[in-house]
Design brief:
Rossmann fold; about 180 residues; 6 helices; alpha/beta; about 20% strand
Length: about 180
């Protein structure tokens, strides 16, 4: 079964407008995939955790020992690391593709790691962005500016970046991608 690694915020201060679209995406993808995420029960990560557990989806948490969470006990599997870098590498390793939801510096870092691996041809795994409320527009504008200025040579599609603004469209793209590959 295809594993999707999800990168997203774990902050309790996440804007409330992000929750419903993220919940809808995971519900639309349903039990067709295994889900891998950073573990924990706060913020959007906690939202993903609760949806997956409630619906019986196979879910793996990849967390740091210092952030052990009681929500981890309800997952199918939990893997703990001492280092955030080891944790992030494991999240990337386990994914057949990646879903990027609104998040902070860690989320952006993880998404850029996946994009970089595609850019330098160490992998070619899809990086799916749910661009809720145009959250990632600044990032996409930066990539466009890099192309204009000659520092980035590939298009989003050449780096296997897929962007949709709503959960229905993104769920359809994800299902279509893995059905054809």
């Amino acid at each position: 079964m295809t594993s999707l690694t999800i990168f997203c915020s774990s902050k309790l201060t996440v804007n409330n407008t992000f929750y419903e679209p993220c919940k809808n995406l995971i519900t639309l993808l349903n039990n067709d995939f295994k889900y891998v995420y950073g573990g924990g029960s706060d913020g959007l990560m906690g939202c993903i955790n609760r949806i997956c557990i409630k619906n019986g989806y196979h879910t793996t948490g990849v967390n740091c020992k210092r952030w052990k969470d009681e929500g981890d006990n309800k997952l199918n599997e939990v893997v703990y690391f001492d280092s955030i870098i080891d944790r992030q590498n494991e999240l990337i390793r386990r994914g057949d593709g990646y879903i990027v939801l609104p998040g902070g510096v860690g989320t952006i870092y993880e998404a850029l790691q996946c994009i970089t691996l595609n850019d330098i041809k160490e992998s070619n795994k899809p990086v799916f962005f749910l661009n809720v409320n145009k959250y990632f527009n600044s990032l996409f504008n930066m990539l466009d500016d890099g192309r204009i200025m000659g520092t980035i040579g590939k298009t989003n599609s050449e780096m296997n970046i897929i962007i949709r603004d709503n959960p229905i469209d993104l769920a359809n793209e994800i299902k279509k991608y893995f059905k054809s590959n």
